Amino acid sequence: MNSITTELPAAPSARVRWSWLWSSRQDLAFNLMPFWLGYVLLAALFLTRSGGQGTDPQWLASFGGRTFDIMVIAAMLYGPLIDGPHIWATIARTYTDTREWAQRRKLFLTSLLAFAVGPVVILIPYLINMVTPLPKPMLDWGWIAWTMGFSFYVIHHINQQHWGFVSLYKRKNGETDARERRIDQVYFLTALWTPYIAMITAPWSNPAQAGTGISLASIYVFDACHIIVIAATIAYVYHQIQLWRRGEVLNGPKLLYIATIVPLYYLTFAIDPRFAAFWIFITGTGHCAQYHGVVWAYGEKRYAQAPATEKRGLPHLIFSNAWLYIVLGLVFAIATLQGPGAWMVQHVVGDWLKTSVFTNMFTFLDDEKGSWLGIQLVAALISGVRLHHFYVDSKIWKVSKNKTLAKNLNVSN
Question: In Å, how far are 115, 239, 330 from 337, measured between CA atoms?
Answer without folding.
Answer: 14, 47, 11
